[in-house]
Specification:
Number of helices: 3
Strand content: 35-45%
Order of helices and strands: HHEEHEEEE
Distance between the termini: 5 Å
Shape: globular
Helix content: 25-40%
Radius of gyration: 15 Å
Largest sheet: 6 strands, antiparallel
Length: 145
């Protein structure tokens, strides 16, 4: 199995049980080893009292992209610490795109950056996620795959 095939199979296994990301309206548009892109169209129920996308929704999108990137090797991995900086508001109707990239993977610990932009390329947020591998796999992987 190639690294990309493993990443795609890992993403499919995670997505099957990821009710939160589906509920929010996210879509996986790209996955590879140590990388993932998820997208979401901002609808009325994503907006706060200022009429802009709620920061928690933006965080959730970035966190989900981070999760698919750091689980791409079929090793169960969870968030240890995350931080986000908002640079512009997401607006009703915007298509938010969260692109996660692995910066470092040493032993059980990883560092990932996620950039959230809108459909015009305007940067909405920068997110850094710190991961920790735990016991288990996302799917049963036999030797020789």
């Amino acid at each position: 199995m190639t690294p990309k095939e493993r990443a795609e199979k890992s993403a499919a296994a995670m997505w099957a049980g990821d009710h939160a990301s589906k509920w929010a309206g996210m879509e996986i548009t790209h996955v590879d080893e140590g990388a993932a892109t998820l997208e979401l169209t901002v609808t009325q129920h994503h907006c706060n009292g200022h009429g802009i996308c709620h920061g928690g929704v933006t965080f959730m999108l970035a966190d989900s992209a981070f999760a698919f990137a750091c689980n791409s090797r079929n090793q169960a991995t969870v968030a240890q610490h995350n931080v986000i900086s908002y640079t512009a508001p997401g607006r009703l109707g915007d298509r938010l795109i969260a692109t996660a990239t692995e910066l470092s993977l040493t032993g059980r610990s990883g560092i990932y950056d996620v950039t959230v932009t809108n459909q015009d390329g305007t940067k909405i947020a920068e997110f850094r996620g710190f991961s920790r591998a735990i016991k288990g796999q996302l799917f049963d992987e036999k030797q020789g795959d």
